[in-house]
Amino acid sequence: MCGVPEPNASSTAVADPDRSPIRIRPLLESDLGQVTAIEEACFATPWSERTFRNLLRRPDAVLLSAVCEEHRVAGYAAVWFVGREAELGDLAVAPNDRRRGIGGELVDAVLEEARIRGVMRILLEVREGNRSAQDLYRSRGFEIVGRRRGYYAGPKEDALVMRRLLVR
Question: How far apart are CA 155 and CA 90, in angstroms?
Fold first, then answer.
């Protein structure tokens, strides 16, 4: 668990009458097989298991899992902190678990961790064509503040830079 304190959102649960509730907790090394499977299902250029393993060892990084009662990982987020700024580097929800509020719960848990650490702003990049992710981030107070041309490969696409300022 890389010595990262458990965020206050650890007891957060998402209820769906047709599915088991979801709990947000720190991502564990034992989650990595499921996390990389979700990563490969969601992204054209997925992060490797080694990348996640390296992030777990970094004291400036927090990785969170959205887990079902049966210990199945439904989604995850990776954020790292530099001074009073944070970068939300990765967030994904398994395709079969979308539209349940899991992505929003993960973003909320990241925001809470950022507040605890005294962060003033959070940045992220999102594919220009990924409207559902943009809508999720906007619903949590992020705004588009820039563009990185040709940032993504396979297919080549611009990244929109989004930012959320945190009020103290």
Answer: 18
Domains of the chain: total:
1
Measured CA to CA, the distance from residue 97 to residue 12 in angstroms comes to: 16
Residue 129 within any structural domain of the chain: no
Whether 158 is covered by a domain: the verdict is no
Burial letters 146-168, b for 16+ CB under 10 A, else e: eeeeebbeeeebebbbbbbebee
**Residue 98 belongs to what domain range?**
8-122
Structural domain contains residue 138: no
Centroid of chain to Cα 88: 6
Q: Which residues are catalytic?
A: 125, 137
1-56 pLDDT tens trace: 122 222 333 334 444 445 668 999 999 999 999 999 999 999 989 999 999 999 99
